[in-house]
Amino acid sequence: MVVIVDDHALFAQGLTLLLESRAGDRFVVAGSTTAGEDAVALVGREQADIAIIDLALPPLGGVETIRRVVAGYPATQVLALSGTEDLGLAAAALRAGAAGFLGKSADPEVLVAPLLTIAAGVRVVRADLLDALLAAGDRAGDGVLDRLGSRELQLWRLLARGLETSEIAKPMLVSERTAKRMIASLLHKLGAANRIEAAALAGRYGLLDGDRR
């Protein structure tokens, strides 16, 4: 069973028709919703094996939607979709528990093969995203956590969750402009070229798993 969580109803309808026509013997689209806050209930109600979740889901957000679905139904595999090329957001989706990531700009028929792969228990990651994650890991130095203060660690965790600058500024109790400066300073200290590399490093050091300070 497959469910679709996408704020564009027409896209969900088109994807449903595609899957039923190309892989109807393997996938049955049991339902869809345009609201991320309804995703967990939909997955549970339909006992979904796979949830296709768009990362642009106001106001909850795709990453948080994925996190809630995975927490509630860990056996459900999630394929994250995005209409942008924001690899930082893609990394955050994978960190939240998505089993794969694909851009909406790809030919819709390309979705069938990744779904088959995910259904078989194999992760699907775009080559450029995988390269960026590996590059971040290769450049990671020792003693990074010891060089950062508690505020910087808090900022790193927020950044790794895929939050926008405005969303980071609120819990940090600073202006958005100040948050931008803080992020730039943190990236410099980490030796990360961008947010995706910072997210990859956060995963390496277990900052999102509660196993490090």
As for the CATH topology of the largest domain, it is Rossmann fold
Q: If helices are DSSP runs of H or I spanning 4 or more residues, what is the number of helices?
A: 10
* Strand percent estimate: 5-15%
Structural class: alpha/beta
User: What is the CATH-assigned architecture of the largest domain?
Assistant: 3-Layer(aba) Sandwich
Count the domains.
Answer: 2
Query: Which radius of gyration do the C-alpha atoms yield?
Result: 18 Å
Q: What spatial order of strands do you see in the largest sheet? A: 2-1-3-4-5
Shape: elongated
CATH classification, class level of the largest domain = Alpha Beta
CATH homolog superfamily of the largest domain: Response regulator
What's the average pLDDT?
Answer: 81
SSE arrangement, N to C: EHEHEHEHEHHHHHH
Number of strands: 5
Low-confidence stretches are: none
* Biggest beta sheet attributes: 5 strands, parallel
End-to-end distance, in Å?
Answer: 40 Å
Please, could you describe this protein's structure?
The chain has about 210 residues and is α/β, with parallel strands linked by helices. It has two domains: about 1-125, 3-Layer(aba) Sandwich (Rossmann fold), CATH 3.40.50.2300; about 140-205, Orthogonal Bundle (Arc Repressor Mutant, subunit A), CATH 1.10.10.10. The chain is built from ten helices and five strands. It has helices spanning about 10-25, 40-45, 60-70, 85-95, 110-120, 125-140, 150-160, 165-170, 175-190, 195-205; strands at about 1-5, 30-35, 50-55, 75-80, 100-105. It has a five-stranded parallel β-sheet, with helices on both faces. β4 (about 75-80), α4 and β5 form a beta-alpha-beta unit. α3 runs parallel beside α4. The chain is elongated, with a radius of gyration of 18 Å.
